[in-house]
Fold these 2 entries.
Entry 1:
Amino acid sequence: MHRFMISAVLLMCSAYFASAQAAPPARPCTSAEHRQFDFWIGRWDVATPDGKPSGQSEVRAIYGGCAIEERWDGEQLVGGSVNAFDPGRRRWHQTWADDSGRVVLLDGGLEGTRMVLQSEPSPGRPFKTRMTYEPLEGGRVRQLVDRSSDGAEWKTVYAAIYTPRKSPEAGPAEVARAYAAAWTANDAEAVLRLFAKDAVLLPAHARDPIAGEEAMRRFWWPTGAKPVRVVSMDVDPEESSALGDAGAVRGRFRLAWKFEGESEEHRSNGRFLMTLARNSGGEWKITRYMWDDVLPR
């Protein structure tokens, strides 16, 4: 069984390094605007502000990060939405549909830290609807639904808190997503907690391997270097597998960051491969992490 897993990982590594021979062309939808709604991505338990369960939601990036899809399973209805940034209009758009037959079209954008989308009156719906999504501490998200007949006075008709759904056992793909979320949060300790103590990094551009937690800390956060703030990191796991206590996941990533005190945003994208092992406590830990990327711009 273990020989099978090792063979599978070796095949994945061969495919990875073959793809690394030629840098892929820059991918679309990598602008900072396309990442503005990434805080909503996740698997959620949703409740009203007083704690009454409202439903469950799964929000994920689709189409190579060019859109975000929500799948909603609620106490009252089942539905979902597709959300995307329209670079031509410089606006976000959401199309919602549910099992009541309702379709709602909303447009808007980021206001401060909140995503605010609004619909116009339509036949059978003689009012405006405003949806507000606001990131909160602890990785939660607040959603408000307001209505107005004139656009001047608004009444809240629904409020909910999205709380990250706890999973008894995260698989390899979930670890890859947690890795991206930790970088987006600029939480160095959360990044390192995902790795085994003797993990090894195999950086892009044929740089030397980095072995162990302290070496990784020096590599990513060198003393005396100009501080860097990650704006966003997004991963698309394309293949994930687990066999016993061994696992692997490969896919694509997109990264945006800024140097402290500078306004210019740098971006890169590429492929990654993680191998993982499950420890005695049942947690998956990254044992090897390798990546290639397009040179930053």
Entry 2:
Amino acid sequence: MKGCLQHDISLSQVASLSILAFFGILAVRPLAAAPVNSLFNPNRYTSVMAGELKPLTSLSFNTSNLTWSVDGVLQGTSGIVDTTQTGSPGEVEAAVFTFDAIRLSGLGANVSITGHRAVVLVSKTSILVRNTTLSVNAENGVLVGSGQTLDGGAGGPGAEGGIVSNSYNSTSATIRGKGGVGSSGGTPTDGVGYGGGKLGGSDSAGNGGGYGGLGGEGRYSTPPYLGPIYGEDTIIRLYGGSGGSGGRIATGDETGSGGGGGGAIELSALTTLTLDCVTIRANGGSGGGSNSARRGGGGGSGGGIILGCNSIVLTNSSTVIAKGGDGGRAANGTQYGGS
């Protein structure tokens, strides 16, 4: 296709790839015959179907109920929940879908990934993704009007890493990595997750969620309660991002709720992974904007992406990105929430 210049990239060149990862975490790592070099080695799993996964028009995965559909036809509940990637069962859950081979071509934006767990697509041989978008983005926060109290944006699939025991304040799968509640005259909340942005002073914009770096500082937040760092230079666990905190303001003014944390996704091929004119996104949601009071919500942090393979082929027009969401902006475009 026009604009798609292919490059064959050896393992020694992987470290020099131009791949974006702002406040999220991304890793490209080789797989060996043994699982020591990968979080999700294909040799550990059984294929959910015989032959190649090759949808014609659409594909969907639900990481909560472990179902998947091809071209609108439900294929059953055949994904598995993996809790052994860290050696501590129950610490992290990811939904793993394993195939003999994977070929996703020309699907555009018609790939749906939903649910609260991270998604891992595993191939016993190769993976080819062409002219297709894979997204585990979070939802944005919203504008909170005078006298209102509104929820923040939802985290993407796998936000906070799915299910992590005794390490965050979530009580339900429905709020993992969620942005904080924004409130005008009521009670706002912190962002949810390891690196959730914390509430500032009594009259302040929301603070951004952290992950690979500290969350951004919200305007008028005293002191700036930034979302902490919990990411790693080399991913050990497939964590997602955390939510930004909501803004708070007295009744009579507007504020914004926090953006959700980006989700988590891995593509794991035993042989070659090819990305041709592909977009893979695990972005945090932007904080809700505040038109008048300049107290926007904090942006959620970017999530986690792992590309596991023995060799990788990328084109110039492929994009892999895990960035934090912008803080909420005022009507004049000035950013006041942390990001």
